[in-house]
Design goal:
globular, four-stranded antiparallel sheet, 166 residues
Length: 166
């Protein structure tokens, strides 16, 4: 199935609709309105590939329901799952940082409802309005910090397990 056919746009996204998403809690209505202009409300089936490691990052998503598996391509092993993203979380951060290339892959582990954003539009608005740009960058940086801490904990846990234990 063509991934473009798998995306079903639902309703127009408003600043009020975005207010309920945890990633945007505390963001001003004006800044949410800017994001709403670049957003679509989408439904994605299980198995939908959001992006591939190394691909060009043109979009990002805020998950409303469902789960997404983040993976990385490991030579000789294929795609290896490294994390699960769920309701209330951000999918994709590579769109914000040059060279705008995905550092990982992501696939819907279940059906997913999400707000999908056009990254070019959001980046342009970040450049045009430094306060908005700071707000968005700060929120993405918080996500990166949380995920780095989580990865660190998983690595420490894995390193203290006896060889062969699962």
């Amino acid at each position: 199935m063509d991934d473009k056919l798998a995306v079903i746009a639902m309703i127009e996204v408003t600043a009020a609709a975005l207010a309920a998403h945890p990633f945007l809690h505390g963001m001003s209505r004006d800044h949410r309105a800017v994001l709403a202009q670049a957003a679509s409300d989408v439904s994605l089936p299980a198995g939908h590939r959001f992006f591939e490691d190394g691909g060009h990052a043109t979009r990002f998503w805020l998950v409303q329901s469902g789960h997404v598996t983040v993976d990385v391509h490991v030579p000789g092993q294929g795609r290896v799952p490294i994390d699960t993203i769920g309701m209330g979380e951000l999918i994709g951060w590579s769109w914000l940082f040059p060279p705008f290339t995905w550092a990982f892959g992501a696939v819907a582990a279940s059906s997913v409802e999400a707000f999908e954003f056009d990254a070019r539009t959001v980046r342009a608005r970040c450049t045009a309005d430094p306060a908005f740009g700071h707000e968005v960058t700060w929120r993405v940086a918080e996500v990166l910090t949380k995920r780095l801490k989580s990865t660190r904990s998983r690595l420490i846990t894995a390193s203290i397990q006896p060889v062969g234990a699962c």
